Amino acid sequence: MQDIDLRQLRCLVAIVDEGTFTDAAIALGVSQAAVSRALASLERALGVRLLRRTSREVTPTATGLRVVAQARRVLADVSDLVREATSGHTRLRVGYAWSALGRHTVAFQRRWSTLQGDTDLQLVRVNAPSAGLAEGACDLAVVRRPPDDRRFATAIVGLERRLCALAADDPLARRRSVRLADLADRVLLVDRRTGTANPELWPPDTRPVTEETHDVDDWLTVIAAGRGIGVTAESTAHQYRRPGIVYRPVRDAEPVAVRLAWWRDDPHPALQAVLELLTDLYRAG
């Protein structure tokens, strides 16, 4: 495997695409001898014949077809890798676990396009504690509880009310708001990885029974069926309006802090601009 390199794969793909060694050399900007040597060294490293050569044409063998297909994928992956490493100033991926920015999501996207049009904004949903930062799926992340990972720094950009999600036919759904004590005898649905609700919101002697869920769609399905209730940040209600579910404010529960998280040692160039914009949006209400 150590004898295989990208130059060999590029030569193989170019020969197949161009049809001859001469045309492949022209396409790659190298000599025909260099193309021939690259193919020969690749065939030796793999121990198989990849191309059939005649005086009229060059065609892949059956094994060659499979190798060419894989070579195209490898070269595409490498191209993506290079683009990923060098696109810091042209692309910004903001991760989130359940809900992005609630009622501010659209305003954030539109204002970003106006103010920072040279940097493409993408919102990425990753149901993980770091909302995709640790997985490399995003550059910044919106989180609603502080990450345990010390590699990340965070700043609070705003606060959101806590709401209770109930089945529409639940007796509590007729109220304009509820208290934590009203929910103590219910089954509380929790996501221990990314959720903001936990039994510690209640006094020790009145904590509800919990049932674990792993995704917002599962959470909504169980609530709509009347098998449990959820306590969540206000943004969830804006992003996930579902038939059969109502949201009511929990008036004696502390608000949820909305944080922006980033790699402490490698912040995205757009970090400060995002912090300022999100803080302005939440401050404006």
Automatic annotation (TrEMBL):
Keyword Transcription regulation attached: yes
Classification via SUPFAM superfamilies: Periplasmic binding protein-like II (SSF53850), Winged helix' DNA-binding domain (SSF46785)
Domain HTH lysR-type: residue ranges: 4-61
Superkingdom per UniProt: Bacteria
GO cellular component, one term: protein-DNA complex
GO molecular function, one term: DNA-binding transcription factor activity
Keywords, alphabetical: DNA-binding, Transcription, Transcription regulation
PROSITE patterns, alphabetized: HTH_LYSR
Pfam families the record matches: HTH_1 (PF00126), LysR_substrate (PF03466)
InterPro entries named among the record's database cross-references: LysR_HTH_N, LysR_subst-bd, WH-like_DNA-bd_sf, WH_DNA-bd_sf
Gene3D superfamilies: Periplasmic binding protein-like II, Winged helix-like DNA-binding domain superfamily/Winged helix DNA-binding domain
Keyword Endoplasmic reticulum included in the entry's annotation: no
Family affiliation: Belongs to the LysR transcriptional regulatory family.
PANTHER family: HCA OPERON TRANSCRIPTIONAL ACTIVATOR HCAR, TRANSCRIPTIONAL DUAL REGULATOR HCAR-RELATED
This protein's name: LysR family transcriptional regulator
Source organism (scientific name): Streptomyces actinomycinicus
